[in-house]
Input
Amino acid sequence: MKRIQHILPKLAFLLFVFVAVGCDNAGETSDMEQFVGFWALTSASDEGGDKTALFSALGSLTLSLDEDGSHVLAVDIADPEEDDVSLAGTYTVNEATRQLLLAVPFGGSSFSLPFDYEIEDADTVILTGDSFVLGNLLGAEAASLLEGDVTLTIERVS
Output
């Protein structure tokens, strides 16, 4: 019986340590959970400098990311004679490589838009993608104005 009395406090301490360590991760959200929501482009730049005005001239760009891994990438084109663009597809988040991959239908097939990401805070994410890939989506005119890596800052709207 004496032996059990000495072991019980040690077991209670170990149980407390396991519970305390397990509780540390309880409040953390995964990057995938962090991305869920409705986002709007607030700034853009490439190796040549600020490109926010270029993207604003095209229209407003929004991205809706749902819990089920689906997304809608939409551009409300500023020119009233042009049709708005809405591309629905799926997305994946690779936390190990810190990459967001949007799969969008384009030209009759699926097109992948890979972005490296950095989560600034709960409402701001910085995406970095290749200008060639973005140029294919935006068209030849916009593509000719982009160089190197393009950095897009998106902010949560809801």
Notes: The longest strand covers residues 109-121. DSSP finds five helices and nine strands in the chain. The radius of gyration is 23 Å.
